[in-house]
Design a protein that fits this description.
- It is a single chain.
- This protein is of the alpha+beta class and 412 residues long.
- 68% of the residues lie in helices and 10% in strands.
- The protein has one domain: Up-down Bundle (Outer membrane efflux proteins (OEP)), CATH 1.20.1600.10.
- α3 packs antiparallel against α4, α6 crosses α8 and α7 packs antiparallel against α8.
- The radius of gyration is 38 Å and the shape is elongated.
- The two termini are 15 Å apart.
Length: 412
């Protein structure tokens, strides 16, 4: 496992991708180690061993020597004289012979199975990477929400203290104190709920990916716009799609299987040698024989079914190509739109924050009511929280686009 991990990490550097942690994500070498330990990835790796053994089985074939032994007692009644009894025996050794061309097809069929298993291992790694990325950003969103509500709680706590002092000085009504304390209690309740979700998301990460460091970044990096056109990203995702590669591998294996089934329409003969001892050793027989099955409708039907299965895999490959192309285009559009949405949300949050600060200054000067201030604080908090979540959405979609194009965590 350690050797594989080192090779994978070395491969990351060799492909031109940086092995350092992308902004907001765990270190790449840690991700590689965690993914290799994932049970679904290990199961896919074990499937390679299964297919390698299956390839050896196909290359060897079921063409084995078999031994036949038999015994009998002969009773002879001559016209004159007493009955005669003879103990006799016979033995034969035989072996089916694989006709020319079938061995090469069996070898190709086994190699196709191994290639499919290797592709399946890469697909399992990629799916595990997708799930890890998704779970990681679920946790980051809850952590961002907890941070935002912590800041809001601190702000409202300070505001409640100021209102209480004003009431003590006779500059504020008792109602304003109650309103400020109610807003503070609501923020505390929201923070408690968010922290529960944050802990749940963190525990989900720990359970699903043991060894993954659960530490939120101090600062979330700003998203960057998606560079390149839609066709460029769609082609890159199609080029590296394990799902499409699996469909192509299935088509290739089906074609080989169809050729092998067509070859089986001509049965393999069985060649044998036999010896026998008859009449108590008076007769000794040595001979050879060949057994050739006569082909019937079953062999033709098997060949026709294999050809039809090839058509099935061809259509499935075409469907997979369309599906992946559509999903890649949608992902590109979503990632591009998410960056613009984050920019708009950030501007809205800045304006709402500025408005809340101006309302706070007006309240301090006695030119506004506490209700207006609390409403402004609430709107600013909602805008800031929305901006943070939009920021994480843009980051996740951009990373997901890079992941599917093998430009992020290219370890599969």
């Amino acid at each position: 496992m350690k050797r594989i991990l080192l090779l994978l990490i070395g491969g990351i550097g060799g492909t031109g991708f940086c092995a350092e942690a992308p902004p907001g994500l765990p270190p790449t070498e840690v991700v590689a180690r965690v993914l290799l330990a994932n049970p679904s990835v290990q199961a896919a790796g074990s499937q390679i061993t299964v297919e390698e053994a299956n390839r050896r089985r196909l290359e060897a074939g079921s063409y084995e020597w078999s031994l036949r032994l038999g015994g009998q007692q002969r009773r002879s009644r001559p016209a004159t004289g007493p009955d005669e009894r003879f103990n006799e025996w016979n033995a034969a050794i035989e072996r089916p012979l694989r006709l020319p061309g079938k061995a090469a097809l069996d070898s190709e069929l086994g190699a196709a199975g191994v290639a499919l298993a290797e592709t399946g291992h890469g697909d399992a790694m990629h799916e595990a990477s997708r799930n890890l990325l998704k779970s990681w950003f679920v946790w980051l969103r809850e952590s961002a929400a907890a941070t935002q509500w912590s800041e809001q709680l601190a702000l409202l706590d300070k505001q409640a203290g100021a209102v209480k002092r004003r009431q003590q000085l006779g500059d504020a009504a008792r109602l304003e104190t109650i309103q400020s304390e109610a807003a503070l209690a609501q923020a505390a309740a929201q923070l408690a709920q968010v922290r529960v979700r944050q802990q749940t998301a963190a525990e989900d990460l720990r359970r699903r990916y043991p060894g993954l460091p659960i530490a939120a970044p101090i600062v979330i990096a700003d998203p960057t716009p998606v560079e390149g056109g839609e066709s460029e990203w769609v082609n890159a995702i199609l080029e590296h799609s394990h799902e499409l590669e699996l469909s192509r591998g299935e088509t290739q294996r089906a074609r080989i299987a169809a050729s092998r089934a067509s070859g089986d329409r001509l049965p393999d003969p069985t060649f044998g040698l036999h010896v026998s001892r008859e009449r108590a050793g008076e007769d000794r027989i040595v001979g050879a024989y060949i057994n050739i099955p006569l082909p019937g409708g079953g062999r033709r039907a098997a060949s026709d079914a294999a050809l039809a299965q090839t058509d099935v895999t061809i259509h499935r490959e075409a469907a997979a190509t369309r599906k992946i192309s559509a999903e890649a285009a949608m992902l590109y559009q979503s990632a591009s739109a998410a960056f613009a949405s984050w920019q708009a949300g950030r501007n809205a949050a800045a304006h709402q924050t500025q408005a809340a600060e101006m309302t706070a200054r007006a309240y301090q000067l006695g030119e506004g009511s506490l209700n207006e201030l609390l409403a402004a604080r609430r709107l600013a908090n909602e805008a800031q929280l929305s901006a943070r979540l939009l920021q994480l959405d843009a980051l996740e979609l951009h990373y997901r686009l890079q992941l599917d194009a093998h430009r992020l965590w290219a370890i599969d």
